[in-house]
Amino acid sequence: MPVPQAPMIPLPEPQSTEHFVTIHAFETGYMRCRQSVFIDGLLGDANVGSWRFFISHAPSNTKLWFDLGMSNDLTDYPPSIQERHQKFFDAKPAQNTLRDDLKALNVKGSDVGFVVASHAHWDHMFPAKQYLPNATVLCGPGTLSLTQDTWPSKEDSEYDGRIWNPQRADLPIRELPSQLSAPEQYWCRVGPFDKGHDFFGDGSFYLIDSPGHMSGNLSALCRTQTHTGELRWVLLAGDCIHSPHFVQHPEAPFGCHLPTPSGCIHSDPALARDTIRRISALKTGDTRVLVWLAHADSLEGQWEFDLPLGSSASKGVKGWGTV
């Protein structure tokens, strides 16, 4: 029986015409596996992209990435990732590099202030100092405890010390405070979620504590506008959800045949289920909400948004995906 959830509170309306962010999404690679990895009993193959999202907040002149997706060079990763995960998911990188994506946006890498890691899995982060020399990596509470044994110090570790070892990382890394250690009102209710951090203080971009997939898992809720000026809320769901079916069917059974401690793709299935229910409630509770997965073959409502000038997607070149 589903766990009862607190009622969804209305999403905050903008108090100014400036209280929005812009979002641009870039497809960074492709992976393939059986659909039953995600939903038990679902037939067929899942052929999905791996997305990164560029966020810009004009009032503060802040630019950031939510996830970096997959590196276009698969040798960027620790040996254990190359030997196991890349082979299991038949990983294929896109042609575009992070530098290409910044060029399409007409943004200097040195102007990007943050990289928000939805979580510490390999297909969401890679060493990026050469592209983003002034960025700080932000991660969710508990991430650095999970990733404390890093490669190459620990030869078979899946966590790259160039990212996750605070003493040796190429870029500075900062973990968001837990609810116990955070200042008062740092975490607040937003929509159906108990813990959201109002990153810019104007309700345009929330980092959402989204437990279940792994320690420190985050999603992000963005208030943005279509090319015609209509308000949209976009949930960057990361790996909270691996199949769009879960949005409409939050009780669909998890795939249960993986060689993981939980048997499924989430480290804590009960918490992951609770997060999925909340995402489903968000979607059904407000018709302006779009849910964008980190791994999807396309993004819901993508056609409502402008493409960056000069991007290959705007010219119909396969291998790019931008909104």
Automatic annotation (TrEMBL):
Keywords (A to Z) from UniProt: Hydrolase, Metal-binding, Zinc
Cofactors (names): Zn(2+)
UniProt xrefs under InterPro entries: MBL_superfamily_lactonases (IPR051013), RibonucZ/Hydroxyglut_hydro (IPR036866)
Transmembrane domains' residue ranges: none
Top-level taxon: Eukaryota
Record-stated family: Belongs to the metallo-beta-lactamase superfamily.
Protein known as: Beta-lactamase-like protein
Species annotation: Aspergillus pseudoustus
Classification lineage: Eukaryota, Fungi, Dikarya, Ascomycota, Pezizomycotina
